[in-house]
Task: structure prediction
Amino acid sequence: MERGIDPELMRRVRAGEYVVDAQAVAAAILRRRADRAAARRLSRMLVAGELDGPAVGPDQPDPRTGRD
Result:
């Protein structure tokens, strides 16, 4: 699929028929910023807390020690 500028949109801009809704643009920018901030907060929760060992224990006891 070819990506590019819609020819009809280009025609409307050239003809002066295209009007930018500044309120809609500002709302979209703020919404996107809020979405990014939420994604960053969520991603911090996904970081493993233990750096030296596994985050969870094994499913079966260790055969050498007999412990979980």
Summary: DSSP finds two helices and no strands in the chain. The longest helix spans residues 22-45.
